[in-house]
Q: What sequence folds into this?
């Protein structure tokens, strides 16, 4: 790759990454009249061919289990393709004791093809939590700044839910929610007894037609990819309208390696490896939007060294890669005997929960900072995945005895997934590994990660809550131990929740932050970052909705600045 092939055309904007932030930027910028080139490291996606909706286990080569645990570890054959913690030829490393797990997607639409579609707004307090408890920093913007963009995103993509007037879980623009299932009604009854708030979930799944997309048909298999586009993904909802403008050029198989700056200190092109021809190519552009995911964008910035930016592009503050966080995760489940008496029935619904537990202890003093929400699961699903899979792990025996036990126990488990806020700490960050490169010669990331006592106490509280709800239902809680034996209270390894954010955080002070409130780099005025990297905090809400809202806001700002000739 000694010769660099340069594009003869200069685009208005080059976007790196086609997921939530990149897809939204592509839609807003092209509809605003700009000519955009979008670089995606993976291939295109064909829902009819690539998605596994309505397939039975025996229709897949290995009945959905993968080979030797490798595919199963990377979400298995059943789910949307090209999402993995381990990708051949694309390593990453962890510092001793860190053991960070980095999930990446290599396909058009990115991780929006794989996410659980839980769409929660950050609360007003989440933007000023540093002032409240003295931990970390406040955002340079407020809830009022981003609320109109939450409205726009929810109205466009479709999110179901109900208005509840809960301060920790702001209401939004909602479609009607699906009715609770049997297991969820049991959880709701137990929560009412314990004075725990339990309300309809908020998911980016259509219960009514929106913008020509069909409503959900309740096959319950959202994770496999939806051929009717009833659930949200960038590949099916954001990129098609951008393509229709005629102003979007999509380049797949493009592994971005460097943002090149000119003598004026502005970004002038993006260099990438064409994975098909193994050649290095370069696209010329008047502005760059990085949306490759929080850590991938940090990697790209750190690898973009020059005489002007010897420590990495837009890194005069030294904070690129710092303030990395993931959601605190701890799971648990219990056996509920009342469900043994429940006749087998159709558990109609979306591929996710119909009820959830938002942070309900916001009005009291807890022994840990911030909060968490609880996701619910239970009931029956297709053999080979989910609860039936867990049953096969828990029970022993063979023949008629095993069959009888399976009939007795299947569908009697109710589970919980706690998702809470991690406080940034100086021991958790990513950097360029000085010795390791990927198969294209691009230096890889090395992760440092450590949970603090704050997160451990939060996970312990999650486990206590799970137990209390199960016991309130007359069930037996099954103690959850640590996944890797390193941490107590079942807290999952860093990265496992796939909510990593914060590696190019926004702030008003260029000395302590990478981008401003519009996701624009302090050091490079024509460079924007619109994935999870700018997030200052990582509240107990899944970040994708906020990423899209910030990207929409940043894209409108970029459009306005472009018209003024300021970028």
A:
């Amino acid at each position: 790759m000694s010769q660099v092939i340069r594009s003869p055309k200069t685009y208005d904007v080059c976007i790196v990454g086609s997921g939530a932030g990149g897809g939204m930027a592509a839609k807003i910028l092209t509809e605003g009249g700009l000519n955009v080139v979008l670089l995606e490291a993976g291939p295109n996606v064909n829902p009819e061919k690539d998605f596994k909706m309505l397939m039975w286990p025996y229709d897949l080569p290995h009945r959905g289990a993968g080979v030797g645990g490798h595919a199963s570890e990377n979400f298995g054959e059943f789910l949307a393709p090209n999402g993995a913690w381990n990708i051949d030829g694309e390593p990453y490393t962890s510092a001793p004791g860190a053991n960070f797990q980095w999930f990446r997607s290599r396909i058009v639409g990115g991780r929006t093809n794989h996410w659980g579609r839980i769409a929660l707004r950050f609360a007003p307090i989440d933007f000023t939590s540093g002032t409240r408890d003295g931990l970390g920093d406040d955002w340079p913007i407020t809830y009022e700044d981003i609320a109109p963009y939450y409205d726009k995103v929810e109205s466009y993509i479709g999110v179901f839910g109900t208005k509840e007037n809960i301060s920790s879980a702001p209401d939004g623009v909602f479609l009607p929610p699906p009715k609770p299932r049997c297991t969820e009604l049991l959880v709701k009854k137990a929560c009412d007894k314990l004075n725990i708030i339990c309300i309809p979930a908020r998911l980016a799944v259509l219960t009514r037609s929106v913008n020509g997309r069909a409503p959900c048909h309740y096959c319950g298999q959202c994770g496999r990819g939806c051929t009717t586009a009833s659930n949200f993904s960038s590949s099916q909802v954001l990129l098609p309208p951008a393509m229709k403008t005629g102003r979007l050029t999509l380049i797949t198989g493009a592994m971005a390696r460097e943002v090149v700056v000119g003598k004026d200190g502005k970004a002038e092109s993006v260099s990438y490896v064409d994975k098909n021809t193994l050649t290095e190519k370069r696209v010329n552009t008047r502005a760059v939007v990085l949306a490759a995911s929080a850590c991938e964008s940090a990697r790209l910035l750190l690898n973009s060294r020059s005489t002007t930016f010897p420590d990495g592009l837009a890194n005069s503050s030294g904070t690129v890669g710092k303030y990395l966080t993931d959601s605190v995760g701890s799971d648990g489940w219990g056996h509920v005997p009342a469900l043994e008496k429940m006749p087998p029935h159709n558990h109609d619904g979306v591929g996710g929960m119909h009820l959830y537990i938002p942070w309900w202890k916001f009005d009291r003093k807890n022994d840990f900072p911030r909060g968490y929400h609880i996701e619910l699961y239970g009931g029956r699903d297709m053999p080979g995945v989910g609860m039936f899979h867990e049953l096969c792990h828990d029970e022993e025996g063979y023949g008629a005895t095993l069959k009888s036990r399976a009939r007795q126990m299947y569908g009697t488990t109710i589970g919980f997934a706690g998702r809470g806020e991690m406080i940034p700490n100086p021991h958790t960050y990513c950097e360029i590994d000085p010795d390791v490169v990927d198969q294209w010669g691009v230096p890889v990331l090395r992760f440092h990660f450590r949970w603090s006592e704050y997160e451990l106490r939060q996970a312990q509280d999650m486990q206590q809550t799970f137990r209390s709800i199960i016991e309130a239902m007359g069930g037996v809680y099954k103690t959850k131990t640590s996944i890797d034996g390193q941490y107590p209270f079942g807290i999952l390894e860093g990265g496992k929740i796939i909510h990593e954010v914060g590696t190019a955080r926004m702030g008003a002070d260029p000395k302590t932050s990478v981008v401003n409130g519009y996701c624009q780099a302090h050091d490079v005025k024509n460079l924007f970052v619109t994935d999870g990297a700018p997030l200052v905090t990582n509240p107990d809400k899944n970040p994708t909705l906020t990423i899209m809202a910030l990207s929409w806001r940043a894209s409108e700002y970029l459009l306005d600045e472009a018209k003024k000739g300021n970028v």
